[in-house]
Amino acid sequence: MDSLNPSAEISQYENDLQLAAELGKSLLERNEILEKQLEEYAEINYQQEQELKNYSKQVQLLKEFNESRLKVYEEVEKQNNELDQRSHHFQSENERLREKINWQNERIEALERHSDELQKNIDDFKADISKRSAEKEQKRNLHKRRTLSVPSLRRKPLPETGFAPPPSVEEVRDTAIVTALKTTVKNLKHDLKLEYKRSSVMEQQISELSTRVEQLNIDLESAKAKNSICIRDNSGILEDDSYEQGSNELVQITLNDDEKSLFGELKEMAAFRSSKDAATQTIPLRKPTNLDRPKSLQFLTPKNPVEGRFEISPNAAEYKQLFREIHDNIKKALSFDEAID
């Protein structure tokens, strides 16, 4: 049967070849399509791998930035605490200086009142001395007229030898009191000048401290504002490089200014304390203490004016009593000065 139909076999064979050719062609086309899809998938996979690498790098950068931001937060918090402490310290120092200035003003007023009282006493003593001098002059003239009226009481004048007659007890006492009071008034005026000078210096220092405290408060407010900005930006993602650069530069400038201001404050406080200690130690209030007996009060009277020899005066006890009274009065004045101090 098969040998009888060779044409049928040939046609069947041709059909099979045509079908195989079409099938191979379709397979080749399908293979090309699959190869293109494979290339596309490989490209997509490569792009995704690159994106993963970029994302991992960004995550690492964000971790590092977060760590640096945490360090910045710690530094800002530390600076805030230091600024608070320094602000409280300067406020307490300002209050202390104000109290000291008020105390010095009260002391200056007390010294002025005491100086006025001493000046009034000096004026009274001068008036009393002039009155006594007039009375003594009248008595001396009266005694001279009475002596010259009696011939037996007339004496020859002493030769001019350059020696003055010894002062009377009242003159010595009044002169010593006036001299002591003048010295006290002079010392009090000197103390007033020193107090005025120290008061002006302290007022200037208080104004400087007030200005510094205001500046520190401004720095503290700016640091707190920067801290709040950093806290708000903690949860965000860094999208702009310029913002990161600007924030880093701002933190760096704040740190440099804080270090400079800290060193400057320490130097100024050390200089202020050293100048204050030097002023209190090297400029003490001058007081008339340790009074010595004047050389003019030797309780001697000339025996022979020509030879210049001396002997103990018969009024030595009276001179000593007078000197004790003068010394007691001056000690009372000194005790009053110490009570004021």
UniProtKB/TrEMBL annotation:
It comes from the Eukaryota. Residues 129-140 have a biased composition (Basic and acidic residues). Residues 129-148 are annotated as: Disordered. Residues 24-128, 199-226 form a coiled coil. InterPro entries: CDR2. Transmembrane segments: none annotated. Keywords: Coiled coil. Belongs to the CDR2 family. This is DgyrCDS12405.
